[in-house]
TrEMBL record:
The lineage of its organism: Bacteria, Bacillati, Actinomycetota, Actinomycetes, Micromonosporales. The chain crosses the membrane at residues 57-78, 122-145, 157-177, 183-203, 234-255, 292-313. This is Peptide ABC transporter permease. It is a multi-pass membrane protein. It comes from Rugosimonospora africana. Belongs to the binding-protein-dependent transport system permease family.
Amino acid sequence: MSERQLGERGGAAPPVRIRIASSAGLPGIAPRDGEPDAGPPRGLAGDAWYDLRRKPIFWVAVTLVLLFLVMATVPRVYTSISPTVCDLSRSQNPPSGQHWFGTDLQGCDVYARTIYGARASILVGVLSTLVSGVLALVVGMVAGYYGGWIDALLTRIIDIVLGIPLLLAAIVLSRSFGTRDLGIWPVVLVLGVLGWTTGARVVRSCVISAKQQDYVQAARMLGAGNRRIMFRHILPNAVAPFIVVLTIALGVFIATEATLSFLGVGLRPPTISWGDDISVAQGRFYQAPWPLLFPAGFLALTVVAFSMLGESVREAFDPRLR
């Protein structure tokens, strides 16, 4: 059959053309002129960092978190005014050039108290996160790795603690310390003991998933002990989601501490706390709203900053959201 007859019966199929958009990153092939060099293949952390550094919301959250951390550790960078030096003659003065956030009922500088209030609130959040993180890591690793009756027992304990309202239990436990001035440690212990369940469940699920992988089975066949397998092979796979949970929990603990102080069962004077300042200022909100608005605004901004940071990290480490 001739080519003409083939054309009359429908024509020849169009030629298939394959176009390579880029040669960057292909093994053994150098990138063409003008193409970026992809570099070596990235791991999970490398992919997460690659995504994070291109998100403006991540850098906004990091900037805010750093500002608040410096505020909590070195408050004199932001103000040289003492938060405990008060003058009744300037009681409830509005914001001015001398007192940027005004003064409260006792004549104390609201700006200085707001800056120094970050220390107690953020310190309680960080320490509570560390306490709950250690408990969650230990319980989640043991339950997920050993399984059986150990897993069943620890899982029931997690469910029981998870069913207890955090704020209600924190109020009850905080009142058990009485009126003794124990500083921030009662609040830290209460929040840490009650806030570890979510992290434990995340670690447990990650351990159960990781221990079935081939590299774990190979390490066990080569004679690796349980401790080496747990800390060298399984734990690195559970760290990323665990850190995300802790970052989000940090903001929750800061908000809970402020709520406890607001209700009078958290931090007590002379410790300066945002929640305590908000509680004192609420009775005269209509006469002088600034002693309440500024600490409340800083508290809300701190919680939002840590929440945004946690959400950004979670999205970066979750392959389903890429």
